[in-house]
Specification:
- Helices cover 46% and strands 14% of the residues.
- Strand 1, helix 1 and strand 2 form a beta-alpha-beta unit.
- An 8-stranded mixed sheet has the order 7-5-6-4-1-2-3-8, sandwiched between helices.
Length: 315
């Protein structure tokens, strides 16, 4: 293949799944030479024996990198840490619960080699509960695809392949890891979605639930703003402010015309107060746009602040 592959696996309380997962990943060495494959586990503050299991496997000779967080920061932070420390030309992300199949990784890589920049897995035959997992996911994917304009069947599938040069400087927080394809779209990335295998969970408990829907919706609004404001906040807020100014001018003009033609008292005309309201709102919205421009410039020129704290790295 010639290119180094980094496989990033966030884990949280997955002590029962890790040995078999490492064994499955080792089977990939038949198609990916060992020297070209880097396996990075991010222990996201597990409170079971996940870290001990990983460390034991490392001591027995398994070629894995272990990044251990001081506490549970969430999957987005774990993926962000993996992206920062990955050295491969190609980056694969996958879950550590054995529901993603490592045997799909060579196929994802082959799609990148055809010229795509992001290859996203689609759990077409998903082995999860319909009411608590599949139905909410289906509705969420419809909403995200419509709202971002990047149409995928399965945004929530962690099994994805990326060209590292596109994602190495990506800033992630909240639940933004699931929106990486949408974030990559404004960079001009070529995105392809392919069906992948999905297995029932055999050990441990799912860390996902309906309570995360609110966070996903709020982060969706953030993603939409980031996609729309890639040329600058002022271009968004400024346009809205100009619309309010035009509305205020129109209402003010009507107020004057009604005074001149019908003798309606301006101070008792509701349109006068609407005029004042629209003008004040326009000034506030334009000011927000200016502040947004200043904040964006400061952010772009400042040092990157990590959204996680690492306790130790074993490599």
């Amino acid at each position: 293949m010639g290119k180094k592959v980094s496989i990033i696996i966030p884990v949280y309380n997955e002590e029962g799944n890790i040995p078999l997962l490492v064994s499955q990943l080792n089977s990939l060495k038949k198609v990916i030479p060992q020297e070209d494959m880097e396996i990075i586990f991010i222990d996201d503050g597990s409170d079971d024996k996940t870290f001990e299991v990983l460390k034991s496997l490392r001591e027995k000779g398994e070629d894995i990198v272990i990044i251990r967080f001081k506490r549970n920061f969430g999957q987005t932070s774990a993926i962000a840490a993996g992206l920062e420390y990955a050295k491969g030309d190609i980056v694969i992300t996958m879950d550590g619960d054995l529901q993603n199949d490592p045997q799909d990784i060579p196929f994802l890589i082959s799609q990148l080699e055809e010229g795509y920049d992001v290859v996203s897995g689609w759990r077409k035959e998903r082995k999860d509960s319909f009411w608590s997992r599949k139905l909410p996911s289906y509705l969420a994917n419809l909403l995200i695809s419509w709202y971002t304009g990047v149409k995928l069947h399965d945004y929530g599938c962690t099994l994805k392949a990326y060209r590292r040069d596109l994602v190495k400087d990506l800033t992630l927080y909240g639940e933004l890891h699931r929106f990486i394809p949408a974030l990559m779209s404004w960079k001009g990335a070529r995105i392809k979605e392919v069906p992948v295998r999905h297995h029932p969970r055999k050990s441990g408990k799912s860390k996902y639930g309906l309570r995360r829907i609110v966070n996903v919706i709020l982060d969706l609004l953030t993603v939409k703003f980031l996609l729309a404001s890639s040329k600058g906040p002022m271009q968004i807020f400024g346009r809205v402010g100009l619309l309010f100014i035009l509305g205020g001018f129109f209402c003010g003009l009507l107020t004057v015309i009604m005074k001149l033609t019908r003798g309606i008292d301006m101070t008792g005309n509701p349109l006068l107060y609407l005029t004042i309201f629209l003008i004040i709102m326009s000034l506030q919205i334009i000011s927000i746009g200016l502040l947004g421009e200043i904040n964006m410039r400061i952010y772009n020129e400042s040092c990157h602040r990590k959204i996680y704290t690492i306790q130790e790295i074993i490599k």
